[in-house]
Each structure stands twice: as structure tokens, then as C-alpha cells.
Write a structure and sequence with these properties.
single chain; 474 residues; alpha/beta; Rossmann fold; Isoleucyl-tRNA Synthetase, Domain 1; 6-stranded parallel sheet; elongated; binds ligand ME8
């Protein structure tokens, strides 16, 4: 029988700058989700990559005295390196400058044009444009005349552009996002869904999809004097991979809360226009602040993935990022709170349990059963993964660790004369094996190490602690 598929994506990240904790958060979460469905036997695919065209990248390259492609090559490689460091098991790392993406985008745009979803003639398009966001902002989105995210004034945009008739899809999009029959688009968390619906109820305007004065982009197939607006083409990356690999529609677009509108509204409208299916789920997770402040280069508080890995290790980083706060909510990063999280849950919690139990088993020469093949992810996990309750999955695991610790404390096998005959061991070892299995998507390497330690019949205490304790100043 053919396996069911599960296709999850991250945003393609802009290559104006190197990866930071925010990009890492989304990508690790997507990897965890893909690994979970793979563990359940699905043909799970994870797509990630970089977004390389447009005014923002052209400007960043110019600042570094480089050609856009040369600059994009360098930064894109940094992203790929970061994801390899973090053990991200991507099916493809896509770049929007890849040949196949350019071809698929042009075919897509031609289809939009042929079906009449794009106005046949360009018209004057005026608006306030934020290059940092690569999007138009309305007057009431500005704060004291500035883009609230980039704290810069938007530029006046006034040129002849092609238009996509987004307004024609208002009713269908509302119906899809309301999703009363479960066959539409599941926009999560609920507050993002409500946000989308209330914005949609206000009405939709047609949008500009081309640039007359920007060379760094994909030429429109029906008018090569224009390049494609970067967002329109970037969204198509999912289809560039998904369509030929026969995994379309995407099961989950995992994105930050900043770009839900593009994924839940504009992208589905483009797909409907060419007769393709919209994605099944769009999840907009929360944002990190750093010690209470917005993360920004000018504040100098940007946290790089390599800094996290230097402190917590690869698996420790994956763990602390996803356990720190509920996945759909904003949260704050500080080294102090993350150190604490690491020490209490990994060094003292899981690491200590494994070390304690393996030491006792070795000391008492206990033989354990080898039947760990039948262990499956705990019941109820699919439900938690479907709602991206990743922090909850980790909380459940921590509770299991505490329960086993407690059991050991109550039983105190170190005071018993002949503890190797006790059936209590069976329960403890099976409990640890179950924990290893449930942890696999988050901590693939640690999970395998624990499995190996307890594979039976003889147990040897590992030479090194799984998670060395961090020295923290108090
Ligand atoms: O928007 N906290 O790329 P981008 C958590 N190229 N996550 C954060 C974050 C933070 N402080 N900052 C960024 C783009 N992110 C487009 C996407 S997709 C077709 C095109 C994460 O490099 C989060 O996932 O600005 C957010 O949506 C994404 O990075 C934005 O990345």
C-alpha cells in the first residue's frame, strides 16, 4: 500500500542577513513535525530554503559591494549550514534563484494571465512600500509615519504594475478559512484565523504583482520588461517542490505570525485561480523578544543559532527553543531563563534519570528484556501534533520523567538486597524506552542513545552525561 504523505514547509528566508533564533525556531519546529509523521509511517517531506530576489536583497548586496546573486549565494549557504548544524532533515533546500523555481514561477504566472486572473494591461499603482517587509502598508498600519516593524518610513511607490484580481476571491476565501466542513484551510492558532476573517470581511483590493523598475527578479513571462513582485514568486516555491514530487497540496505551511496573511489569503487565491488546491493548514507561531526587547541589528541583540548550539548543544537547543513557551504565543528569550530550562529539564531531569537508572542496572547486573521494538509513539500525540502543541508534547514527557524519578525514590532499589529480580525494573525501563520514543522528533540523537543504552540484556552506564550541567551564576 502506498504511504500517506505529509508535506510541511517553512518560509523561504530572506538572504539580506544571516539566520537568527527566529528562523531557527520555525525550522526546528517544522523538522520536529516532519520527523513525527515519518515516525508514524508517513512519507513526510520537509521543504525549507531561501528567498533571494527583490529590492531588499538588491539593496543588501549593494551595501556589501556585491552582485545580488553573489551575495545571495553566500548568505543562502549560511542558512543551509545552520540547518545542517541543527540536524534539520530537509527533503530539499530550495532557493528562489534555482532554475526549476524560475521556470515553475513563470508557468504559474502565465496560467494566471491566461485565465484572466491578472489584468491584461498594467495600470498605475500607488502605495506606501516598506522595503524591509517587502510589502505595501496602509496609512493606518503606520506608527508615527513609520513601519512598526522596521521603524523606517515607507517609500512612495508609484508606477505601472500588473494587477492580480485578489478581490474576486473574497467570498471563497472566507468560506475556506471558516472551514465549516473541514475541507478548507485550517488557520491556526484560532486568534490568527479570526484576524484573517475580520480583515477579509473588510473587503479585498487587487494587488500589484510586478515591478517596472527593479531588475533583480523573475521576468514576467507575458511582459519581460517587468519583474515579478518578490512575494508572489516566493510563495510559488512550495509548488515548485510540491507539484512534480506529487505531494501537493501542502499539509502544513509553518510560518511566523507576521506572514500569515500571505499564506492564508494571497497564496490560496493564486492557487484557486489556476485550479489548484489550497494548503490544508497554515500555522502562525509567536515571536521571540530578547530580554524584553524586539530583536534587531541596531540594538545588537540578535541571537545566532551557532551561539545557541555553543551553549546548549544541538539537541539542547532544539529542546529549549520548543519547550520555552506555547507554540502559538510570543515569548521572551534570555540566557538566564534558557539556562534554567536546560538545567532543570535536561541535565537534572532526563539526563539524570538515564544516568541513575543505567548505573543501578549495571551495578546490580540486572538483565532486561529486549522487546523494545513494539514501542510506538504514545497515544494522543497525533492530536497534539495536529494542533502544533509542541510545548505540550515536551511537558508530557517531562511529567513522565518526574513520575519515574518518583517511583525510584519510593522504591529505593539501592537499599534492597537483591534488586535484580524485581519486576519494578521492567516498568522503569519500559517507561524510559517510551520517553526515548516520544522524544525522537525533538532529540533524534539522544533518543537513539537512550534506546541503545536500554536495548538489553545488559546495561552499561554511558561514559558521558547526556546533558552536562551548565554552570550558572545565581
Ligand atoms: O518573511 N521570532 O522571510 P524572513 C520568531 N522571505 N520567529 C521569527 C522571528 C522572531 N523574532 N523573526 C523571524 C520572509 N522569524 C519571507 C518569507 S515565504 C514564501 C517568504 C521567522 O527572513 C518566522 O518564521 O523575514 C517569520 O515568519 C520568518 O522568520 C520571516 O523570515
Amino acid at each position: 500500500m502506498e504511504k500517506s504523505k505529509f508535506f510541511v514547509t517553512t518560509p523561504v528566508y530572506y538572504v539580506n542577513d544571516i539566520p537568527h533564533i527566529g528562523h531557527t525556531y520555525t525550522t526546528v519546529a517544522a523538522d520536529v513535525v516532519a520527523r513525527f509523521w515519518k515516525q508514524l509511517g508517513y512519507d513526510a517531506r520537509l521543504l525549507t530554503g531561501t528567498d533571494e530576489h527583490g529590492a531588499k536583497i538588491a539593496a543588501a548586496a549593494k551595501n556589501h559591494n556585491k552582485e545580488p546573486k553573489e551575495y545571495a549565494d553566500e548568505i543562502s549557504a549560511e542558512f543551509k549550514k545552520a540547518w545542517q548544524l541543527l540536524d534539520i532533515d530537509f527533503s530539499r533546500f530550495i532557493r528562489t534563484t534555482d532554475e526549476d523555481h524560475i521556470k515553475v514561477s513563470q508557468d504559474f504566472l502565465q496560467k494566471l494571465y491566461d485565465t484572466g486572473a491578472i489584468d491584461p494591461k498594467p495600470r498605475l499603482y500607488k502605495g506606501l512600500y516598506c522595503i524591509g517587509c517587502e510589502k505595501f502598508l496602509s496609512q493606518n498600519e503606520l506608527k508615527d509615519g513609520l513601519c512598526p516593524d522596521h521603524l523606517k518610513p515607507p517609500v512612495e511607490h508609484s508606477e505601472e504594475n500588473y494587477y492580480f484580481k485578489l478581490s474576486a476571491y473574497q467570498d471563497r476565501l472566507i468560506e475556506l478559512i471558516k472551514n465549516e466542513d473541514g475541507k478548507g484551510i485550517e488557520v491556526q492558532p484560532a486568534k490568527r484565523k479570526h484576524e484573517m476573517l475580520s480583515k477579509l470581511e473588510l473587503g479585498l483590493e487587487d494587488i500589484s504583482i510586478s515591478r517596472a523598475n527593479l531588475e533583480w527578479g523573475i521576468p514576467l513571462p507575458f511582459d519581460e520588461s517587468h519583474t515579478t513582485y518578490v512575494w508572489i514568486e516566493a510563495l510559488i516555491n512550495y509548488y515548485t517542490y510540491g507539484s512534480p514530487n506529487k505531494v501537493w497540496p501542502a499539509d502544513l505551511h509553518l510560518v511566523g505570525k507576521d506572514i500569515v496573511w500571505f499564506h492564508a489569503v494571497i497564496w490560496p487565491a493564486m492557487l484557486l485561480a489556476i485550479g489548484e488546491q489550497p494548503p490544508k493548514q497554515v500555522f502562525g507561531h509567536g515571536f521571540f523578544t530578547i530580554s524584553g526587547q524586539k530583536m534587531s541589528k541596531s540594538l545588537g541583540n540578535v541571537i545566532k543559532p551557532s551561539e545557541l548550539v555553543a551553549r546548549y548543544g544541538v539537541e539542547g537547543t532544539r529542546y529549549v527553543l520548543l519547550s520555552a513557551f506555547p507554540f502559538g504565543e510570543d515569548g521572551d528569550f534570555s540566557w538566564e531563563t534558557f539556562d534554567q530550562l536546560y538545567n532543570s529539564n535536561l541535565a537534572n531531569g532526563l539526563g539524570n534519570l538515564v544516568s541513575r537508572v543505567s548505573k543501578l542496572l549495571e551495578l546490580n547486573k540486572v538483565t532486561i528484556s529486549q522487546d523494545q521494538e513494539n514501542i510506538k509513539p504514545s497515544l494522543g500525540l497525533s492530536e497534539l501534533y495536529s494542533t502544533l502543541s509542541l510545548d505540550q508534547v515536551l511537558r508530557n514527557i517531562s511529567e513522565k520523567v518526574s513520575t519515574l524519578d518518583q517511583k525510584l525514590n519510593e522504591w529505593h532499589p539501592w537499599e534492597i538486597k537483591d534488586p535484580n529480580t524485581s519486576s519494578n525494573w521492567n516498568e522503569i525501563v519500559q517507561g524510559i524506552r517510551q520517553i526515548a520514543c516520544d522524544l525522537y522528533p525533538f532529540l533524534p540523537e539522544t533518543s537513539t542513545k537512550i534506546r541503545d543504552i536500554f536495548s538489553g540484556p545488559d546495561v552499561k552506564k554511558p561514559e558521558q552525561a547526556l546533558f552536562p550541567r551548565l554552570e550558572v551564576s545565581s
